[in-house]
Amino acid sequence: MNSHLQRREVGRSRLRFLRWLVTDRSHSTYTRETMSTDKKSSSQISPMLAVSDAAAATEFYKKAFGAEVLWTIEGGGVAGLSIDGAEFFLADEAPEYGTRGPDRVGATTVRIELFVDDPRAVHARAIAAGAREASPVKEHEHTTFGPRPIRRMLQGSVVDPFGHKWLIGKFLE
Length: 173
Hints:
- The chain is of the alpha/beta class.
- It has one domain: 2,3-Dihydroxybiphenyl 1,2-Dioxygenase, domain 1, CATH 3.10.180.
- It contains five helices and eight strands, in the order ααβαβββαβαβββ.
- Strand 2 and strand 3 form a beta hairpin.
- Helix 3 runs antiparallel to helix 5.
- The longest helix has 21 residues.
């Protein structure tokens, strides 16, 4: 099978999988109830990151952030991962469906916030795994309002090899 036909079949598999994921979660061991700490809500936001190489991205996220692979689809190119219970997905970019990774377009419109116990250690591990430092980890003070105001936090950022910007931090107060 030539590469064009293989990409088309992977794209069709991806669409079938995404329809299945959205419409029927009853067969999954990961129910919305087990994914959410708030039993009153069944809503969840999980980003799907477009990447230039899903297999390489999976390995990077495992090394950099300790991600665990939850599942992959047959034929590769799409995977579900978890970082300490926070689920996210990744997929090979598919220009024919309107998705390109930020490394291909030269920009990203999303910053991914990763909250951890030790931001300095995770920041350093991400850089050692191949991320580029965007800002060092330092303390930030904020004036915020609302039911859960943030006063102080420790945070730095990296750009992963696929162009996604990760803000790695911890709330201090």
